[in-house]
Specification:
The structure holds two protein chains of two kinds. Chain A is α/β, with parallel strands linked by helices. Chain A is built from 21 helices and 19 strands. The chains are: A alpha/beta, B alpha+beta. The interface between A and B is medium-sized, with 25 and 27 residues.
Chain lengths: 621, 220
C-alpha cells in the first residue's frame, strides 16, 4: 500500500480525524516538483494546541510567500493515532502533502515550553530521523533539524538533537537560513559545510560548533566556539513591526482548537520589568505596531477567514500607547460585522464609559487579574508594580459592572517568600470577596466566586532571578497546604499547579547539555506529552535522572553565584548581565524599578535594535 | 426574511469534518461572502442554519440539504451558490439553491453505496458479502445515552441491497433508515459486516447519494 492509502485507511479508526487530513481553508498546497525546498513546520504538541500558535501562522505564510519554498504543518499525533501509526509502520507525515517527513529538506520545531522536549524526540523518531545530530551523516539529504521559540533562550538541553537553533524573532532569519540551505544543496555541499556557513548568520546557533568544558563540581568551565562560529549569538530582533511580514490569511481549522480566532500582535516587549517574567526580558526592546497597520491587517484576516472574533495579543495590552484609539478604530468595523474584539490583560480603569459599553457588547470573557503575590513587600520584590488598592478598585468596578466571578493569578515559591506572604494570598482574595458584599447594588441572590490560580515559581534564564534556587517540591506542597488550611471562605477556590511538573520545568529551564542524555533516556522509557497531567510520568523521569547520574537539585534548587558561567551565557538576549544583577540586588532589598516609560532603566536590549526602543521615544528625548 | 434550501456535497477529506465542526465551517464560509444571512435577535445573535440530516463521520454525501434564512428578499439566489463556491473548502461544493418543499422531519431513509477497492478476488468478495447479507443476521452494539448498549439488527431494516464488482472494486448499494426517529449508521453496518466475513479494517468508501421520504420518493 502507498503511504497515502495507508493514511486513508487509518483515519476512520482515530479520534477527530480532521486533525490529520489537512485541506483546511487557506492551507497551502504546492506542486512538489516545482519547489526548491520543502520545510516541515512541527509543533511538538497536539493539533488543537499547535493550531492556536501565532508564530506558526506567521512563519507558515512567510515561507509559503516564496514561490520556490513550500512549508507544511506537522503536529504531534495524539496517543491513539501514534499507536496505530507505529503498528502499521506509517511514518510521521505533513498535513498538506501527506508525504513523510524524511522527504523534506528541513524540519523546524517551535519550542514554546520546556515540557515538550520528549515530543520533539518522539516526532523525530516517528519520522525515522536519527535523534542525535551526530548520527545524521554528512549529507544534506537527511533533513536539517532546526528549532526556535522562546525556550531557545537556553537551548542547551536539546543541543545534541537539534542541528540549528534560530535565536529570537524568526521573520527574517528563517528566510536567510532557507536561502543558504537552498544554495548549499544546489552546489552539492556537505552538511558540515552548511552548518559552518549557517553559524555566520546573525541569530543562528549551531550547537555542534561549541565545546563545553565542565568543572569538577559540574558547573561550566568554558564555552568555546569552533570553526569561526561567533563567541556570542545575538538574538534576532525585527526593527519595524509595520514593515515586517504579517499573514493576510490564517489556516482555519475544522476541529475546535484552543484559540480559534483572528489574533493580532500589537506590540513586542513589555515596559513593566516584572523580575520573574522571562517574556518581559526576552522580547525586549519595545516595538509597537501602528493602529492603521493593525486595523487593516486584522480586517483582511477576518475577511479571509470568516472568524467572528478578533483577539489582540501582547504581554500587556493596556500599555499600548494608543490603546483607546486602536479599540475605537477596530470596534468601528468589527461591531457592524458582528465580530467580537477580545482583549486579554486589559485594565478597565483606563477607558471611557462609552468605550467600556462598546467593549462589553462584544466581550465574552470574565475578569482576570494577575496579582502574582499576596503582599505588597513581595510584589515589590518581583517588581510587580501594582498596589492592593489598584487590585481592589478594579474588582470593585467589575462588581459594579455586574461581574460575579473574578480570577486572580498568584505564584508561590518566589524569592524571599515567607509564610506571611503565602497567607497574604488568602487575605487579598478575602478582601476581593468583601468588595463584592460592600457593593450596595450587588445582584440579589447571587454569590461571588473568587478563583485563585496559584502556580509555582520557576526561575528562568535571562531574568534577574536566573541565579535563584527554586523551592523544592516538598516546600511548594507545604505552601499549597498552608493556603488551604488558612482559607476560611467558601467563596474562594484554589487551583494549584502540579509541583512535579513545575520541578521538571525548573530543571530544564536552566539545564545544560548533560540533560540531553536524560531526555533521551526518559523518552526511550516512555515519556511523551509531559505537559499533560494525565500523561506525565514523574517516576520514569526520576529513574532517567538516576540512570544518567544527573542530580536534579543541581539544576533546580541550587543558588548560582554571579560569576558562575551559565549554560546560556553565549546566547545574547540583549539585556546586559550587569542589569540583571542590579535588578536581583534590588529585589533582595524589595526595591522597585519604575516601568520603562517612567525612566529608562538601561537594560541594554535596544543595542540589538540599532539603539531604538519604542518605550524611550515617548516621554524622553 | 425568507427561507431557502441549499444543496451541497461533502466528499474526499471533507468527509472527516464532524457535524459539529461542519456547522462552524459553514457559518464561517457565509461570513466570507456578502450573503445577507439572517441572525437570531437574542442577546447573543447567531445565524439560523438547519441541516437536513447529519452525515456520520467518514461518510461522503453527494446531495445534502442545508436550510438557511436570508435577510434580504431581493438578494439573487443564484449568487448564493456562486459566492459560497468561491470561498469553500476542498471537498465541499455547493450545488443548488431551491425553495424547501419537504420538512427535514419527513426524512426517513438514505440511499448509500460502499466501494471496496480490491485488485484481486473481487468476485469472491462480492459473493461472500452477498451471501452473508442474504443468509445471516447482521447486528451491532450501539452505545445509548443512559449508558450501556443496545443491539441494532441491521438485517431487519436494510433494503434494496445489491453487490456487484468490476476488476478494481466491489460496489454495494442499499437503503438504511435515516431520520429523526431511527437511524442506522452505515459505518457501523459496514464494520459489522466486514468483521463477520473476517475482513475487519478493510479499506472502503461510503457515500450517501440521497435522502428519501417514507414513501420512497426523494426528499426535496
Amino acid at each position: 500500500m502507498m503511504l497515502k492509502d495507508k493514511i486513508e485507511s487509518i483515519l476512520p479508526l482515530v479520534q477527530k480525524p480532521a486533525r490529520y487530513t489537512g485541506g483546511e481553508l487557506n492551507s497551502v498546497v504546492k506542486n512538489k516538483e516545482n519547489v526548491d525546498l520543502r520545510f516541515a513546520f512541527c509543533f511538538p504538541d497536539t493539533y488543537e494546541i499547535g493550531m492556536s500558535h501565532l508564530g506558526m501562522k506567521i512563519l507558515y505564510s512567510l515561507i509559503n510567500s516564496r514561490d520556490n519554498y513550500w512549508c507544511e504543518r506537522v503536529f504531534a499525533p495524539d496517543t491513539d493515532m501514534e499507536e496505530i501509526m507505529r503498528e502499521r509502520g506509517i511514518p510521521l507525515f505533513a498535513l498538506e502533502s501527506r508525504d513523510a517527513l524524511a522527504d523534506f529538506d528541513a524540519i523546524g520545531f517551535t519550542l514554546q515550553y520546556e515540557l515538550c522536549y520528549t515530543n520533539v524526540l518522539n516526532m523525530l523518531d516517528l519520522a525515522g530521523i536519527p535523534l542525535r545530530s551526530a548520527n545524521r551523516g554528512d549529507s544534506l539529504d537527511t533533513p536539517i533539524i532546526v528549532a526556535g521559540g522562546p525556550c531557545v533562550c537556553n537551548p542547551e538541553p536539546l543541543a545534541d538533537f537539534i542541528d540549528v537553533f534560530e535565536i529570537g524573532e524568526g521573520e527574517e532569519v528563517m528566510l536567510e537560513f532557507l536561502d543558504l540551505l537552498n544554495e548549499y544543496k544546489n552546489s552539492g555541499k556537505t552538511r558540515s559545510e552548511f552548518l559552518i556557513a549557517a553559524s555566520k548568520i546573525e541569530g543562528i546557533y549551531v550547537p555542534s560548533l561549541y565545546d563545553i568544558e565542565y568543572n569538577e563540581d559540574g558547573t561550566i568551565k568554558s564555552i568555546t566556539a569552533k570553526n569561526g562560529a561567533p563567541d556570542k549569538i545575538n538574538k534576532r530582533v525585527v526593527a519595524d513591526l509595520d514593515a515586517v511580514f504579517y499573514p493576510d490569511k490564517f489556516v482555519v481549522p475544522f476541529v475546535e482548537v484552543v484559540h480559534d480566532r483572528v489574533v493580532h500582535e500589537i506590540f513586542r516587549g513589555c515596559i513593566r520589568g516584572c523580575r520573574f517574567c522571562q517574556a518581559g526580558f526576552w522580547y525586549r526592546p519595545i516595538r509597537e505596531k501602528s493602529v492603521d497597520t493593525i486595523s487593516k491587517q486584522s480586517q483582511k484576516l477576518a475577511c479571509t477567514s470568516g472568524y467572528d472574533e478578533l483577539s489582540l495579543c501582547s504581554l500587556s495590552s493596556s500599555d499600548y500607547t494608543k490603546i483607546t484609539e486602536l479599540l475605537e478604530e477596530l470596534l468601528g468595523w468589527a461591531v457592524p460585522q458582528k465580530i467580537n474584539v477580545a482583549l486579554p490583560s486589559l485594565r478597565i480603569d483606563n477607558f471611557s464609559d462609552e468605550l467600556k459599553e462598546k467593549l462589553s457588547l462584544v466581550r465574552r470573557s470574565g475578569l482576570t487579574f494577575a496579582a502574582e503575590a499576596g503582599t505588597q513587600r513581595l510584589r515589590d520584590v518581583i517588581n510587580k508594580n501594582i498596589s492592593e488598592e489598584e487590585i481592589l478598585e478594579t474588582c470593585r468596578k467589575a462588581f459594579v459592572g455586574g461581574w460575579t466571578a473574578v480570577k486572580l493569578y498568584f505564584m508561590i515559591g518566589l524569592p524571599t517568600e515567607t509564610d506571611d506572604d503565602v497567607i497574604g494570598i488568602n487575605q487579598l482574595s478575602q478582601k476581593v470577596v468583601n468588595e463584592f458584599y460592600n457593593n450596595p447594588d450587588k445582584p440579589k441572590g447571587k454569590s461571588v466566586n473568587v478563583s485563585a490560580g496559584v502556580s509555582s515559581f520557576v526561575p528562568k534564564p535571562c531574568t534577574p532571578f536566573q541565579w535563584e534556587p527554586q523551592d523544592t517540591r516538598e516546600e511548594l506542597k507545604r505552601k499549597q497546604q498552608l493556603l488551604l488550611e488558612t482559607c476560611t471562605s467558601k467563596k474562594i477556590t484554589f487551583r494549584f499547579h502540579n509541583t512535579d511538573l513545575t520541578f521538571l520545568e525548573g530543571v530544564f529551564a536552566r539545564g545544560d547539555r548533560k540533560l540531553c542524555d536524560v531526555i533521551e533516556t526518559a523518552y526511550r522509557n516512555g515519556c511523551t506529552f509531559d505537559s499533560w497531567d494525565d500523561k506525565f510520568k514523574f517516576d520514569t523521569w526520576m529513574n532517567a535522572f538516576e540512570t544518567c547520574g544527573v542530580s536534579t537539585e543541581f539544576y533546580a534548587n541550587r543558588r548560582r553565584s554571579y560569576d558562575e558561567i551559565l549554560p546560556w551565557d553565549h546566547i545574547n538576549s540583549g539585556v546586559k548581565k550587569s542589569f540583571l544583577i542590579s535588578e536581583n540586588e534590588k529585589a533582595k532589598k524589595a526595591e522597585t524599578t519604575g516601568h520603562c516609560r517612567q525612566q529608562c532603566a538601561g537594560c541594554g536590549s535596544n543595542i540589538l535594535n540599532g539603539g531604538k526602543c519604542d518605550a524611550l521615544c515617548k516621554n524622553m528625548v | 426574511m425568507r427561507s431557502v434550501r441549499i444543496w451541497f456535497n461533502k466528499t474526499d477529506s471533507a468527509k472527516y469534518i464532524s457535524h459539529l465542526d461542519l456547522t462552524r465551517c459553514m457559518i464561517r464560509a457565509f461570513r466570507r461572502t456578502d450573503i445577507p444571512l439572517w441572525y437570531t435577535e437574542g442577546f447573543n445573535p447567531h445565524p439560523h442554519l438547519v441541516f437536513g440530516l447529519s452525515l456520520p463521520l467518514g461518510v461522503e454525501g453527494l446531495r445534502e440539504p442545508l436550510d438557511i434564512r436570508l435577510n434580504d428578499d431581493t438578494y439573487p439566489t443564484e449568487r448564493v451558490i456562486e459566492q459560497l463556491n468561491s470561498v469553500t473548502v476542498p471537498g465541499i461544493e455547493f450545488l443548488e439553491i431551491a425553495e424547501p418543499i419537504n420538512k427535514p422531519l419527513e426524512i426517513h431513509s438514505g440511499k448509500y453505496s460502499v466501494k471496496i477497492p480490491c485488485e484481486t478476488s473481487a468476485e469472491e468478495l462480492c459473493k461472500t458479502i452477498l451471501n452473508t447479507v442474504k443468509n445471516e443476521t447482521i447486528t451491532y452494539e450501539k452505545k445509548v445515552k443512559k449508558g450501556g448498549f443496545k443491539t441494532i439488527n441491521v438485517s431487519e431494516h436494510i433494503k434494496y441491497f445489491t453487490a456487484s464488482y468490476n476488476k478494481n472494486e466491489v460496489i454495494l448499494t442499499f437503503n438504511l433508515p435515516a431520520g429523526n426517529d431511527f437511524t442506522i449508521n452505515p459505518v457501523s453496518f459496514c464494520n459489522a459486516l466486514f468483521e463477520k466475513i473476517g475482513k475487519k479494517d478493510m479499506l472502503h468508501r461510503i457515500t450517501r447519494h440521497k435522502l428519501l421520504m417514507k414513501d420512497g420518493t426523494e426528499f426535496k
